[in-house]
Amino acid sequence: MYMLVYVDDIILTGNNTDHINRFVQSFSQRFSLKDLGSLSYFLGIEATHTSTGLLLTQKRYIADLLHRNNMTNAKIVATPMCSTEQLTLKSGHPLDDPKQFRAVVGSLQYLSLTRPDISFAVNRMSQYMHQPTDEHWTAVKRILRYLSGTISQGVFFPRHNIPSLHAFTDADWAGNKDDYTSTGAYIVYYGRHPIAWSSKKQTGVARSSTEAEYRRLLQQQPRCVG
C-alpha cells in the first residue's frame, strides 16, 4: 500500500482492497476523516478512469486560469512559444504592475505537473519574474492561448504497461542571449508514459554544445539510477 499526504489531503492506493479498507477504518478511529471514494480530483488534478488506464488532466484548473485573465475566448495557437522569437530581459517596456504576470507564471508552473509540453515555455517565462515587460506578458498570454486549445490534454497511464525505463535529454548551446547560458531538458518514460520531466537553465556558460549536452545528461542520470 502507498499513501500520498499533502497537508490534510490523502491518497491511498495498493493491490489489496481489504488492506486499504482496514487501514482507513483504523485511521478513522484516531482522526476525523471523510472517505471520498475512488480518486477523481486531487489538488487541482482530475483523474479519469477508463477501461485502458488512468488519465490525469487539469481542465478545471486551466478553465479557471483562462477566466481569471480574460482569455477564455482568446484566439487559439498551435504552439506554446514562437520558435523565432528571441526574448531578453530588456525586451519591451517594464509592466506598471507585475503582479498578474507573476501570478500567472506561478500557476503555469503548477500546471506543468501534468503538461510536459509547456515546461520549456514556462521555464523561459520564469526567468523574467523580477522585472517583466509587455513583450514577456505577450509571450505568457500565448501559453494561455495554447492551453485554451489543448485543455483536455494530460498524462495517460495505461493499464497494461511495458516495465522498462527510458530517458531522453537535450540542451541548446548559449541559447540565453542575456548571459549565454544553455537550457537543458529531460523526460523519463516508464514504458509508454512519462513519469518525470523538466526544463531548466544551466548554471555557468558551457564552452561547447557537447559540454552543454553532457551537463544535462549528468543532471538527469540520478533520476534513472537513484
Automatic annotation (TrEMBL):
SUPFAM superfamilies listed in its UniProt record: DNA/RNA polymerases
Pfam families, per the entry: RVT_2
Reverse transcriptase Ty1/copia-type domain sequence ranges: 4-82
Top-level taxon of origin: Eukaryota
InterPro entries from the UniProt entry: DNA/RNA_pol_sf (IPR043502), RVT_2 (IPR013103)
Organism: Brassica napus
Protein name in UniProt: (rape) hypothetical protein
